[in-house]
Amino acid sequence: MFQPMMRYSAYSQELVGVHSTFFQNVILPRLGPHPKGSTVINALPWKSFMNDDYTPIEFSWSWSAKGGLPVLRFGVEIIRRNPTLRTRQPDVDDNLALVAQLSEQDSGIHLQWLQHFANALSPIDTQAWAASQEGHSSRMFLAFELYNSPKVKGYIILGPETPQASITTIELVARSLRTLPSGTSELMQSFNSIHQYLENLDATEQARTEMLAIDCIDPKKARIKIYLRSPRTSFDSVLQMICLGGRLQPWSNSSIHALRTLWKLTLSLNDAVSDADPLPSKSHRTAGIIYYFDIRIGASVPACKVYIPVKHYGQDDQKIATGFQKYLDIYDLKLNGACYLEAVREMCYHRRLDKGLGFHTYISATESGENLAVSSYLQPEIYHPCRHR
């Protein structure tokens, strides 16, 4: 998938060489055991929370609101060749070690804030952590945006809340922010609007705090992103969430219109479905709508991105790709040399797109000016039975 995604993003020959070398030499050796023959999911030595089928890598195309071609990005979980040898928290340490190594080669990559949040939010006891999770043991991901050089982000996965917990997950995040080196009152002011909104939700509406992410750049420019998963799935609930129930300025009418269009096209919803109607009920651990709110120095209010979980609520990958292609056409967004549907068909060569869900994971949107910046998230389904026939 990596090579065609770069081609469809029209990276120069020089950058294709730079990014291919980085991916081949730095990323691939850190993705754990080769998936060949690993068709029995329960026997996998390490089950990654990156994707629902435990694939430890996810790719995405990100289009800005100004149109044109997308930037290629990917998220990974660093996994040792022999995951069973893990003790204490080497999974976290391995991620931090890679960022530290990259920072020695690129002065624009900073480790300080990621190290702080890893210390504050990642538990030491690996066995207790694994026992607390629902089918996975992941605690940290890394993501890379491919510009002239890779831009790095770190993701810290937060543990589930239990009746025995002495502190809620969102309170733990608040504590980590209060002790953040070089933090400011603006950060806490911005965070408090998120915290207060969550506190006012009743039990049936309560969003789960899933992850905290940080841009590994100069802290003065870095975003701290707080990821929430909401059980509410109507479009009306999305509109309430993205403005934190009125605590943030609502998106413009044109942005809301674009978001509704994206929602209906990618989920194959007809006009009879109203904004108040919830999506079909799903019991999966990753069901519900994902949001992140980013806070940063110099901003007194957070910004929001919404992730539509098409992997659960789409009809099939063919219809998701067809709907997203229509959205791209409406808003003059494109790929280099092919339409979106053709490109996705090329990359999902192990099976037909209309034979299931899961190749697409999310379609995301955030307001940028009067329009939306949108992203499509794809994963290679490395353990899919069709890959091992």
Walk me through the structure.
The chain is α+β, with helices and mostly antiparallel strands. The protein has one domain. About 35% of the residues lie in helices and about 20% in strands. It contains twelve helices and ten strands. It has helices spanning about 1-10, 15-25, 90-105, 110-120, 125-130, 170-180, 185-200, 235-240, 255-265, 310-315, 315-330, 340-345, and strands at about 55-65, 70-75, 140-145, 150-155, 210-215, 225-230, 290-295, 305-310, 360-370, 370-380. The chain has a ten-stranded antiparallel beta barrel, surrounded by eight helices. A hairpin with a 6-residue loop joins strand 7 and strand 8 (about 305-310). The longest helix has 16 residues, at about 90-105. The protein is globular. The model has no long low-confidence stretch (mean pLDDT about 90). GO terms for molecular function: transferase activity, transferring alkyl or aryl (other than methyl) groups. Belongs to the tryptophan dimethylallyltransferase family. Keywords: Transferase. InterPro entries: ABBA (IPR033964), ABBA_NscD-like (IPR017795). This is Aromatic prenyltransferase.
Question: How would the blueprint of this fold be written?
Answer:
Layout: H1 2-8, H2 13-27, E1 57-63, E2 71-76, H3 90-105, H4 112-121, H5 126-132, E3 140-146, E4 150-157, H6 169-178, H7 185-199, E5 208-215, E6 223-230, H8 235-242, H9 253-267, E7 289-296, E8 303-308, H10 310-313, H11 317-330, H12 340-347, E9 360-368, E10 371-378
Antiparallel strand pairs: 1-2, 1-10, 2-3, 3-4, 4-5, 5-6, 6-7, 7-8, 8-9, 9-10
GO biological process, one term: alkaloid metabolic process
Family: Belongs to the tryptophan dimethylallyltransferase family.
GO molecular function, one term: transferase activity, transferring alkyl or aryl (other than methyl) groups
